[in-house]
């Protein structure tokens, strides 16, 4: 699967199977995105390659040893690393074709905004 940021500076290719598509309502994801939830899916690091002219995204540590990646040119949030060894997360909507990925859970549902029902 391929994907990238809004401007195309950060691009990636993932050859492994997508794992655990989910929503997240933690305070960090809410502030990072400016939205009530972010959508994430993980891929094995083996078979994951940064392919765009910008190389890897700029990384920001949101939790100890957990980083979120964004494009320094357009600001798009595209990735996460450090959540689970051997996996890299990408925002579902950063994928060029995300039609087949449906979130199965909402992490930090207790932090969901009251005007949007959390995913079970």
Automatic annotation (TrEMBL):
<comment type="similarity">
    <text>Belongs to the Gfa family.</text>
</comment>
<dbReference type="GO" id="GO:0046872">
    <property type="term" value="F:metal ion binding"/>
</dbReference>
<dbReference type="InterPro" id="IPR011057">
    <property type="entry name" value="Mss4-like_sf"/>
</dbReference>
<dbReference type="GO" id="GO:0016846">
    <property type="term" value="F:carbon-sulfur lyase activity"/>
</dbReference>
<dbReference type="Pfam" id="PF04828">
    <property type="entry name" value="GFA"/>
</dbReference>
<protein>
    <recommendedName>
        <fullName>CENP-V/GFA domain-containing protein</fullName>
    </recommendedName>
</protein>
<keyword id="KW-0456">Lyase</keyword>
<keyword id="KW-0479">Metal-binding</keyword>
<keyword id="KW-0862">Zinc</keyword>
<dbReference type="InterPro" id="IPR006913">
    <property type="entry name" value="CENP-V/GFA"/>
</dbReference>
<feature type="domain" description="CENP-V/GFA">
    <location>
        <begin position="1"/>
        <end position="105"/>
    </location>
</feature>
